[in-house]
Specification:
The chain has 494 residues and is of the alpha+beta class. It has 14 helices and 22 strands. It is 32% helix and 22% strand. Helix 1 crosses helix 9 and helix 11 crosses helix 13. The chain is globular and about 70 Å long.
């Protein structure tokens, strides 16, 4: 029997797993997809918010500001790219400036440091390309940008390094309350655990319904995005928000931590929890809204679009608590924006809940908070490149020309704990396929490396999800029909 079973391997589930791996617990992470960070964590704005807009007294307000302060240390330990570039919430008229001042006052109450309300002159100094009609802004220097899926992957790796287990392709079908715990039935396994932590994202209400009548509902809210080529990367220096509305923080324009530009999202409440397709109307809205920030955004440099789902809770706030009826079952649900920003503080809080239920936890003396450093070949000096190639010639073979990603990096990403097993899994970890050609050149080579390292046939290498096949067979491979066609031809002729 496990002590803790965590359902969901997004950034919340993996952060909780990493923090609980500090203690002497037998723990498993259960994920329905074939990789970690395949849901909301893979498809969001990738912003670490300063924390000025949450209501005082809410979980969002409680965890965002605290969580924000924790990212420097966490990202250093886990070798995750993170930059504090600051953010601006811009206003186009005096009515919106009232909102700016309200956000500032709210941020002071929540403890957001070093904020400023600035005028149009200061905005122009910071961001010379922005719309000249902007009259002022709220500047929050503690806001940052990150790679959220790289964070979740590193958290999972660190948790496994410290003794946690990961079960992929395990969709939870039902959960039974049993003596001293729960019996979790998946499509692959039956898992016994004393405690269950529900981090299932848009499916959190469905998972909770397996043990109790849910007192919340999760609404999938789709957001669509553009990603521009790195050559557009200097149009803005900071995260640029428009004044927020009831549907959220609105369409933003921001650099990414990998020097692209991200633009989005819109907000559409849906019923389908798998509706991650982009639409003409959705992207059209994003484009039109973003041009209010900067009229000359070079959308001709767009290299990809994507959509993601946020878990919008009916309660309007994060749900982080032990079930009142199903003891030992902890819901961590409705973690929409600023969920990523709040994730380290949420994880610490859940650890305290587990401690309270269990009557304390014993720390491991050998817990290691760090993962093995990654070699990012493109960032090395010429001398460093020469030295690493001498040690391992695979770093001298460039697989992805757009991002200068070597075979050595891809092999390492496959062979780590929580390593890549799919084309998109490699893409999330070391970025081949994220450049201008979007994998047109490097995709087949990534497949070859995956097949070789995993000991699989190339036909069995998938793009992302379990059934997202790429190859159906080999060219000129004789089919079963071709083997018997000479025998059946006379019958067909008759």
């Amino acid at each position: 029997m496990y002590d803790v079973a965590i359902i969901g391997a997004g950034v919340i589930g993996t952060f909780i797993a990493r923090e609980l791996s500090r203690y002497k617990l037998k723990m498993v992470i259960i994920e329905k997809d074939n990789d970690v960070s395949n849901g909301t964590t893979k498809a969001n704005s990738a912003i670490i918010h300063a924390g000025y807009d949450a209501k005082v007294g809410t979980n969002k307000g409680k965890f965002n500001v605290v969580g924000n302060t924790m990212f420097d240390q966490v990202c250093e330990a886990l070798d995750v790219p993170f930059k504090r570039i600051g953010s601006l919430v811009i206003a186009f008229d005096e009515e919106e400036m009232k909102t700016i001042h309200s956000l500032y006052e709210n941020g002071l109450k929540l403890g957001v440091p070093n904020m400023e309300v600035i005028d149009s002159t200061k905005v122009k100094e910071m961001e010379p390309t922005l719309n000249a009609a902007i009259v002022g802004a709220l500047y929050a220097p503690t806001a940052g940008i990150i790679s959220p899926y790289e964070l979740a992957i590193s958290l999972a790796e660190n948790a496994i390094d410290n003794g946690a287990e990961l079960l992929l392709n395990n969709k939870v079908d039902c959960i039974d309350k049993v003596y001293k715990g729960y019996k979790i039935h998946t499509n692959e396994n039956v898992i016994d655990s004393r405690f269950v932590i529900n981090c299932a994202g848009v499916y959190a209400d469905d998972i909770y319904a397996m043990v109790d009548t849910p007192d919340f509902k999760i609404i999938p809210r789709r957001g669509q995005y553009y990603v521009l080529d790195k050559s557009a990367g200097e149009i803005v220096n900071k995260v640029i928000f428009q004044c927020p509305t009831k549907l959220g923080k609105g369409v933003l324009v921001s650099p990414t931590v990998h020097e692209n530009v991200i633009i989005g999202p819109n907000a559409e409440n849906l019923k389908d929890k798998e509706a991650i397709e982009t639409t003409e109307d959705g992207l059209g809205f994003v484009k039109e809204s973003a041009q209010k920030i900067y009229e000359d955004i070079p959308f001709n440099k767009n290299i990809t679009t994507f959509a993601g789902l946020r878990a919008e809770p009916s309660t309007g706030d994060f749900i982080i608590e032990e079930s009142k009826k199903a003891k030992g079952f902890i819901n961590v649900a409705g973690i929409k924006s600023p969920g990523l920003s709040s994730s380290p503080a949420i994880a610490d809080y859940v650890v305290e809940i587990v401690k309270d239920i269990n009557g304390g936890l014993e720390e491991k003396k050998d817990f290691n908070p760090k993962i093995r450093k990654k070699i990012r070949f493109a960032d090395l000096s010429d001398q460093e490149k020469t030295e690493i190639i001498k040690k391992d010639s695979r770093y001298g073979r460039i697989i992805c020309r757009c991002e200068t990603i070597s075979e050595g990096e891809i092999v390492d990403a496959i062979n780590r704990n929580a390593g890549a097993t799919t084309v998109d899994g490699v893409k999330k970890r070391v970025r081949p396929g994220t450049g201008r050609c979007q994998g047109g050149f490097c995709g087949p080579r990534v497949m070859e490396i995956l097949a070789r390292e995993l000991g699989r046939d190339m036909k069995d290498i998938v793009k992302d999800h379990k059934d997202s096949y790429i190859l159906t067979g080999y060219t000129k491979e004789e089919t079963e029909f071709e083997k018997v066609k000479d025998l059946v031809a006379p019958a067909i002729d008759k």
